[in-house]
Amino acid sequence: MNRTERANAYHSYSHSAGDPAAGDRAGDDVGTSSAATAAGLGRTRTAIAAITTGVLGLGYVVGIGVYLVAFVRQAGRVLEPVLLSRGLSMQADVGVGQSYRGQVEGRTVQVSFVPGRALDRSLLNVYVSADAGTRAAIGVQRPLLDCQECPLVDWADLTGLQAAAEDEGWVRRWLSAPEHRAVLEGMLGAGAGDGTRELYVQPERLWLRARLQRVDPSQVSAWLDALLLLAREAEG
Asked: Among 11, 190, 219, 231, which one has the highest count of C-beta atoms within 10 angstroms of its own C-beta?
């Protein structure tokens, strides 16, 4: 065998036996690929778990929200039996509260009630139509939602109340009878219950606004009777 033939035979043997270094590199590539696949699967599982937790958490929050809205709406109907018995009918919802409207003793009466939430007190508004033709505001402290520019009425007979009015003489005539002042003081005074209450006389109506911690339907019905009496006197 000459030199050329021996060289060719050697190369043939090398290729047929394989390259040990190349085999090691191939093994390393396979190991690296397996580790990358495992890491990718781990990340996928983590992402799926996070998404599942988020969906469940969102569902819980939505469920609690629906429950709270339903609870507050039901609480907003606490006045429904007494107001329906007085001839009012339920109107469209006021957010999470209720609104009622109707005729009582020939006068248009409208009531809106929003129950308290967390630290907020319940809000009650009662409107009774009356041809008063003037403006006044009465409360334990000076009311600020209307008649802001009206002068204070200097009248000692309004025990524990402050009144502001466009026409002081009208207020004195309106509340000239002691029993009428007693009705007003019973509705607005400190002994009338918790929370704050204000009475606004407007040209075409009387408006009672109350912020209450506890709502007593029978008391609200009594306040409605007081407003009807005062509305008659306002037109007298």
From this structure: 231
* 183, HSE (Cβ side, Cα atoms, 13 Å): 19
Report pLDDT digits (tens) over 135-151. 999 998 888 899 999 99
Instruction: Give the closest residue to 221 by CA, choosing from 112, 85, 77, 82.
Output: 82
Instruction: Tell me the C-alpha distance between 119 and 48, whole Å.
Output: 40
Residues 65-77: tens digit of each pLDDT: 433 344 344 445 8
Whether the per-residue pLDDT at 42 is higher than 50: the answer is: yes
Q: Which CATH class is domain 78-234?
A: alpha beta
Q: Is the pLDDT of residue 131 over 90?
A: yes
CB 195 within 8 A of CB 215: no
Neighbours of 121 (CB within 10 A): 18
Orientation angle between helical segments 217-234 and 178-188, nearest 10 degrees: 140
Q: Answer whether 224's CB lies under 8 Å from 86's CB.
A: yes
How far apart are the C-alpha atoms of 174 and 231, rounded to whole Å?
10
- Please state, in angstroms and rounded to a whole number, the distance separating the CA atoms of residues 106 and 228: 10
Contact present, 150 and 135 (Cβ < 8 Å) = yes
**CA distances (Å), origin 29, targets 23, 26, 37, 122:** 10, 5, 12, 72
**Does residue 216 register a pLDDT over 50?**
yes
Amino acid present at 24: D
Edge to edge, the sheet with strand 196-202 lists 88-90, 98-104, 107-114, 122-129, 205-212, 196-202, 136-139, 162-165
Read off the tokens for 217.
Answer: 């339907």
Amino acid letter for position 197: R
